[in-house]
Structures are given as structure tokens and as C-alpha cells.
Design goal:
By secondary structure, the protein is of the alpha/beta class. Helices cover about 45% and strands about 10% of the residues. Helix 4 (about 125-130) links the parallel strand 5 (about 115-120) and strand 6. Residues about 5-25 have low confidence and may be disordered. InterPro entries: 6-PGluconate_DH-like_C_sf, 6PGD_dom2, G3P_DH_NAD-dep, G3P_DH_NAD-dep_C, G3P_DH_NAD-dep_N, NAD(P)-bd_dom_sf.
């Protein structure tokens, strides 16, 4: 996970410990809403609810905004979640916690919250935020978890939270998520954490294409290394403040490995390559993901537009190639046909000082 936080810390009347997962007796004052209810949104709600139930600085109840759907049996998804305490479509078999309340009304779900957790496909964020203008409390804080991972079965995982200034606020967010099986660290690099979480999905598409053509682990490892290098270079070109050390946090190389070995982007890209590109990513997404959304294809398009606008196409051959394969301009085999020698990253690093 590679979340980042924005917002101001609400006024408090008593001191608060910043040690992750420690219990202390303080009057509850932070109310949490999860904006999104897919697989990862439901996992996040489960994690958070386990902590709000035991840490006095949080209200017990966790609202989870549900984009309403009608299940095959005719029942509304939100009603099914509240009756069974499970997201029967996106996370079946996992109890969320009795203090998780599914709410299909976005405005109602957020109106009392002062901590918002966004966990929706990134292409929907702008529309959701427009709907929330004037609907949230002053000084509300927000964190973005817009990416995916599976920890609901309580296997050991870790995550990174990026913050801009207030480390105490970041550590409170860490307390909200931290469990014995899910460790959370904080780093002062919002842009680096955010871009790691975004760009790794493009590299995962490339890794899936390699898998679909049965090119083997050595080729896949090379693609991942080149991908990480392009991730770092683009991040530092866009935001020179990005720290190299961020790429060695769990949000960086660890999450890149996980996403390239599993995950929905790799899965769909593998199927695309096996079918010689005869079926589009949209078709395969609908068939293979059960209503979940890809991130890599739309992110690759956004990256392509940035590179084209700034004249950086030649510097990032992997990113450019992924997009051109996704839209059918190149065959899947093109993922290993470009030359990395065209990229001089010493020039990139020097250029970053002037961007």
C-alpha cells in the first residue's frame, strides 16, 4: 500500500501518544469514513474497524461508502453487506467487523467524518471529489489508498504512508491501520509515495505481457528493473523533491514486485498477450475481474500524454511501449524490442534540477 495524506489536524484538547498500536484512554474524537467498497476498500475497512473498536481516540463506527449495485439475486449490495457483515461480491468470506456500516449515500457517509479514506479506482476520484465540495467538515483530513493488495486473510504485510509536514498526523493515521500482521511506516514524501503507487501498475502491465508470451523469469526481472528505473526517473523529473529512499520503502520496490507477480494488471495483461491482442483490455477486464477495475491501462495513457507534452518520449521507452501496446499500435512482443541504451539517466537526473 502506498497511501498519502492531505489536510489539517483538527484541534485537540489533550495530548495523544504517537506510538503505533498502543492503547490509551482518551475521549474519542476522530470519526472515519472509507470512500469506496471494492476488494481493497473492504480490506481497508476491516483493518480500520479493528482499531477504531479498541483505540479510544477513534469513534467505533466506520462508515463505508458503497457504489450501489444489484446482486444477481436482486438484493442491493449495501443491504447485503450490512446483513452479513461481508462484502459478498468483492471480499466474500471475510467478516468486516460489526462496527462497519455500508452506506450507499455518499454525502451521508462523509458528513460526520473528519478522517476520509479514499480507495476507489483513480479514474473516479475527480467526480467523487466534485460531489463532496461543501459537504465535508472543516479541517477534515484525507488519505489516498488508491491501489490494491490482499491482506484480509491476515497474512503479514506492510505499507508506507507519505506525509508533507505534520508527522504527528501521519503517525495517527498509522495507528489507524497498524495491526500485528500489517505494519505501517511513515515517510516525508507525499509525491514519491503516490507516484510509486501509480506507476508500478504500468510496469505490472509490462510484466504481464512477458508472462503471456512465456519469456521467463529473467526477462520479467529485467522488465521490472527497467520499470523501477523509469518510475524513479519520471518521479524526480516531475517532483525534484522526491527522495531516492522512498523507492526502497514498501511502497516502492516491494510493492512493485508484488504487483508484477500477482495483481489484476499483470493478470489481464497476460491474457491480452496470450490472445495476441485480439481481445481488448476492456473486454478482458470485464471477463476476468468480476467488476473490479484496471489501473495500469488508464495510467499508461496518462503517462504517455505527459511524456508527449513535455517531449520526454525517448527517455522512457518502457512506459511509451506499454501504452502503444495497450491501444493496439504495437504487438505484445514489442515490450522487449526497444533498446534501453537510448535512455541516458544521468541526463534525466540533471534535467530534474530545472523542472
Amino acid at each position: 500500500m502506498a497511501p498519502s495524506i492531505e489536510g489539517k489536524r483538527p484541534e485537540v484538547k489533550s495530548p495523544m501518544s504517537t506510538t503505533c498500536c498502543n492503547r490509551e484512554e482518551i475521549t474519542p474524537r476522530y470519526r472515519v469514513t472509507v470512500v469506496g467498497s471494492g476488494n481493497w476498500g473492504s480490506v481497508a475497512a476491516k483493518l480500520i474497524a479493528s482499531n477504531t473498536a479498541k483505540l479510544p481516540i477513534f469513534h467505533d463506527e466506520v462508515r463505508m461508502w458503497v457504489f450501489e449495485e444489484i446482486l444477481p439475486g436482486g438484493e442491493k449490495l449495501s443491504k447485503a453487506i450490512n446483513q452479513t457483515n461481508e462484502n459478498v461480491k468483492y471480499l466474500p468470506g471475510i467478516k468486516l467487523g460489526k462496527n462497519v456500516i455500508a452506506d450507499p449515500d455518499l454525502e451521508n457517509a462523509v458528513k460526520e467524518a473528519n478522517m476520509l479514506i479514499f480507495v476507489t479506482p483513480h479514474q473516479f476520484v475527480a467526480g467523487i471529489c466534485k460531489r463532496l465540495v461543501g459537504k465535508i467538515k472543516p479541517n477534515t483530513e484525507a488519505i489516498s489508498l488508491i491501489k490494491g493488495m490482499e491482506i484480509a486473510v491476515e497474512k503479514f504485510s506492510e505499507a508506507t504512508i507519505g506525509y508533507r509536514q505534520d508527522k504527528e498526523v501521519a503517525q495517527r493515521w498509522a495507528r489507524l491501520f497498524c495491526t500485528p500482521y500489517f505494519l505501517v511506516s511513515v515517510v516525508q514524501d507525499v509525491e514519491g509515495v503516490e507516484l510509486c503507487g501509480t506507476l508500478k501498475n504500468v510496469v505490472a502491465i509490462a510484466a504481464g505481457l512477458v508472462d503471456g508470451m512465456n519469456m521467463g523469469n529473467n526477462t520479467k526481472a529485467a522488465i521490472m528493473r527497467i520499470g523501477l528505473r523509469e518510475m524513479r526517473a519520471l518521479s524526480k523529473l516531475l517532483f525534484p523533491s522526491v527522495r531516492d529512499s522512498t523507492f526502497f520503502e514498501s511502497c516502492g520496490v516491494a510493492d512493485l514486485i508484488t504487483t508484477c507477480l500477482g495483481g489484476r494488471n499483470r493478470k489481464v495483461a497476460e491474457a491480452f498477450a496470450k490472445g495476441d491482442g485480439k481481445r481488448s483490455f476492456d473486454e478482458l477486464e470485464a471477463e476476468l475481474l468480476g467488476g473490479q477495475k484496471l489501473q495500469g491501462v488508464s495510467t499508461a495513457k496518462e503517462v504517455y500524454e505527459i511524456l508527449s507534452h513535455r517531449g520526454w518520449q525517448a527517455i522512457f521507452p518502457l512506459f511509451m511501449t506499454v501504452h502503444e501496446i495497450c491501444i493496439g499500435q504495437l504487438p505484445s512482443s514489442a515490450i522487449v524490442e526497444y533498446s534501453e541504451q537510448a535512455t541516458n539517466f544521468s541526463i534525466v537526473e540533471g534535467l530534474a534540477q530545472y523542472c
